[in-house]
Amino acid sequence: MAITEENPGYKWVGTRPIRPDGLEKVTGKARFGADLVLPGMLYGKVVRSPHAHARIVSIDTSAAESMEGVKAVITGADFPDLAANGAHPSDIDVANNAIARDKVLYEGHVVAAVAAITREQAEAAAKAVAVTYEVLPHVLTVDEAMADNAPLLHEAMITKGVDPAPEEPSNIASKILHERGDLDQGFGEADAVVEREFTTKPVHQGYIEPHAAVADANSDGRAHIWCSSQGHFQMRAYTATVLGVSPGTLKVTAAEIGGGFGGKTVIYLEPLAVRLSQRAGRPVKLVMDRDEVFRATGPTSGTRIKVKMGVSKDGKITAAEVWMAYEAGAYAGSPVGAAGMTAIACYDIPNFVVEGYDVVCNKPRVAAYRAPGAPMAAFAVESVLDELARNIEMDPIDIRLANAAVEGTQASYGPKFPRIGFVETLEAIKEHPNYTAELGPNQGRGVAAGFWFNAGMMSSATVHVNENGTATVVTGSPDIGGSRQSMALMAAEELGIPYESIKPVVADTETVGFNDVTGGSRVTLATGAAVVDACRLIVEDLRGRAAKTWDVEVDQVEWVDGQAQHVDGAQPPLSLNDLAAKSGRTGGPISANASLNSRGVGAGFSTQLCDVEVDPETGVTRVVRYLTAQDAGRAISPDYVEGQMQGGVVQGIGWALNEEYIHDTEGVMENPSFLDYRMPVASDLPMIDCAIVEVPNPAHPYGVRGVGEVGIVPPMAAVGNAIHDAVDVRMTELPMSPIKVLEALNENDG
Amino acid sequence: MPRTHITTVINGDETEFLTEDSTSLLNALRDEVGLTGAKEGCGTGDCGACSILVDDRVNCACLMFAPEADGTVIVTVEGLADSGELHPLQQCFLEGAALQCGICTPGFLMAAKALLDKNPDPTETEIRYALAGNLCRCTGYDKIIRAVQEAAREMRGQ
Predict the structure, then answer these.
(1) Would the CB atoms of B137 and A647 count as touching at under 8 Å?
(2) pLDDT tens digits, residue range A137-163?
(3) Complex ipTM, two decimals?
(4) Which of A208, A256, A687 to mutate to test the interface with B (most CBs of B within 10 A)?
(5) What is the pTM of this model?
(6) What CATH number corresponds to the domain at position B70?
(7) pLDDT per position as a tens digit, A720-739
(8) Order of strands across the sheet with A130-135?
(9) Do B90 and A27 touch (CB under 8 A)?
(10) Would the N or C end of chain A have less CB density within 10 A of its end CB?
């Protein structure tokens, strides 16, 4: 179901053809990160810390180096000391996370790497690297890390965002604060007030493809890297930083990427592979095992969040107070900033304080995960709002409509919203048959909403017209979920030629201009805008060539349906094919580049409706019906818009019910496998119903907002609110696993 | 290290390779035979990305030792299309947008083939349980289930 506000009569945009890269992906031909093999290639293996926090006393690589087949062994000492070179602190963190120098800060932290002729030789050599550690006391949660006299991860960390700056170091990297109005006055005006505290655990992005990189280094310092990432320009930049070389010496080719969800916007293996390849003089492949992916790559933060909100009898939110602490893992940089900006952004609230802390602890450094930071905050805020609606006996959609941000609302994080579609997503839910579907015994229904900014950032595109009038569209944005199709659909619309005549290509770092990462829901928006710009330059060029051919002024030429037409019909039309065939006589090859820093983002909103059935005997919660309504702005490629919506919801259901990092008291992860870190499987789920809302983004030529992220913001609260509706318990801890639901039920009975 | 000589039929072709006894069938297929369609997502049989058919049964190639393949008939995703003509499952996955990143797709196709070979008219629940050993993190499974339903309809001639 799609609610389309206006239909401008597009021929290609909004259709559902087969994706351009589909054939390779259903026949096994598509090459992902681990699939590349080069002549003479060695296999690498990484050595990781078994301790959550320890000083590296010594590393003895001699035994490993003398083993059969071993061609290179590297440690932190094989990389430049960025701290000694006065590098930017964030670059030092990137380097130290790639390979530890003095201290290991989490179990799984890299301390060394080896390369050998066979996989087995590499594994044996990795085991033979002898590391002596001085084990240090560790902290695993925000509570432990923020406690007085807690062991420090970084002895010089002074909290940022506090004035005056604290004199003593701590594990609190920074504080954020957003304030408006008068909190006391706001709560004084409330007829109902609810205050709750919530905790969530770190969860992993859970992409099915482990990280993989192949590097082929030359003796002159240049290197070619093939890797699976969400942005090969970003990988080039980070790798160059860690290696201490100019980015231009590295060429990075994007392999097909087997899922990322934010977790492949950072480097892990790339600089290690390059250094090993340099030392060995041969190409080196590094691929993580699944347990390495869990232990050492980006989960998102565990959190503790307190929310107090008040409403008047007519459902107006009079005040909101939010306190949140987010685990950053080993280095500063949790998504608490975005959490603070998004927490109450759906609503127009006159009085609020949102306060947040970025807290380091001895767990893997968090990485972006789909709308980073927002889902945990929404779980807390949307749960409290649900309770308030019940207290004043108001419909959960109506209370959100009564407070919904609209065009012109001063967003809680500062700017005034341009045109947005939050209200439309609420109405889409209310109008859908699921909203009034009958519920069975032990079943309940929950509503929750979410906001995400969506990113813009920088993109480049090149369009070549081939000699037969087809076109190649070249970008540098890895296609993680169908973006080649969006590029081709927009290019077909602009050039007026069939979708099948467009070949979209993801090119390497030497073949196309710079592109920021595939992240922030930005590719169809920003890279799409670059493709549109390049296509419009092509059309201008083609009109000029037609004018030259006809010996008329260019304003006498229009571009309609893929052909140049004389405004008075004085000349027979010239198709793109005709013009391409004669390009040699009208100025040479037909080609255009466009680069941009996005001209404006379009905020995304999602409202979701979840029906669950709770087994009161076991505490098992089963999702029986689910509806998600999301403002896409414009669904260029509705199949893949729905795919993003459904995928985000199901990740959220996993987060709500099953998924969590479990560490023992020594800080060792106890569930680093898909068996024990249980993500949703097909038999856990119903179909996920979608309502695409289209309230066009005025800042994009086709109205695109970006759809990748906001879908994961509401599900945890939607599930929790549904559980409350079913069995009258308010769940405040994620995951809402059977044991916790059962405990809550027993407490209610007791 | 002594290597064992293995003879199998892979995607219709008699295929021989040498392998160490401790090598997984998945690594042998990918490194020795050069068939990289089956993917390693976990190496512990939990994700199904390496699903292949061994003597008509769906198996995780990562859970078999390569020498166990001796004398078997193996079909991988590379052998699913017939002389360039896509299997109905492949066609329905394409038409139904049942893949996003595509890393799990080879495993889902093989597991779904094993289901439909045995049960040409499965219910939605039967499909969901037959594919419960295959993880997809992108799609939420909705479009995958629909694609298998559609392929089943087509294969029944409906």
Answers:
(1) yes
(2) 999 999 999 999 999 999 999 999 999
(3) 0.98
(4) A208
(5) 0.97
(6) 3.10.20.30
(7) 999 999 999 999 999 999 99
(8) A103-104, A54-60, A130-135
(9) yes
(10) C
